[in-house]
Amino acid sequence: MATPTESSSFWSRLVGAITGRKPISFAAAAADDVDAAGPRAAGLSAPSESVRIVFPSTPRLLLIDGSASQRSSVRDALTRQGCSVEVVTTVLGAMPKLAHGDVDVVLLDASVLGAGGLDEIVGLEREARAHDVPLMLLVDASNPAIAAQFVARGGNDFVLLPSHPALLAARVRAAFEVHRLRHGEAQRARRLESLIRAAAEVEGGRYRAGSLQTSTADDVLAPVLRVFDMLASRHAPAEPPKSTPWDGASVVIDTKQIEDLRAKVAAARAQQGRVEEP
Known about the structure:
Blueprint: H1 4-19, H2 26-32, H3 39-42, E1 60-64, H4 68-80, E2 84-88, H5 91-100, E3 105-109, H6 122-130, E4 135-140, H7 144-152, E5 157-161, H8 165-203, H9 222-234, H10 255-276
Parallel strand pairs: 1-2, 1-3, 3-4, 4-5
Helix pairs in contact: 5-6
């Protein structure tokens, strides 16, 4: 039976034969996790040029990490993978940046948690849910229990450290795709709501031409909205006739005045008849 080292070597050579890339030495990668500051400070193993994670666009990451050496290694690794990384050292410092809406994924290192544990990030979790931003936890492999608690309370994902930079980038990419899908669904829902309102305005004769046109190039509903706007504009109601001063005026009829007027007319005719007699 092959030893674990031999099995790893076999799979490494197999992957190299299929992809045409240099096989990864898993033993060397594990050894690289330990530097002069110890395994926890390193966080990530040495970068490997043979693994590159491709992102559909540049993800904007917010890294919350209280460890100077680790946040430097995490930031550098993700930057090399094409990510834009902003770093804060406390959960409180992350709140205004997340509320501003310019974040795609939040990476939270467990080192910033105090005695209260995950209960200290209730506000961060609420803000992330409000903006549909995935929240990932970076946690030491010696403490997997906190990772399980994090997922149980609604966290999106976690990465056990030390980890390979490409694995971290791959997990970030998956979270980034979740954010893009949620954002796209929310945008399409708003577009459909505007289309429903526009249909009601067409029926009521209140639709304004051009109100549904969109400048978002990647909006899949843009062609539908443009066609609807074009057809609705062609069937706009004719201009209503101009109003007169009497439009909308109320008239009150006094029957007694009418009877009095009739009596006066009859009396005048009778008087005229007497005058005309020879």
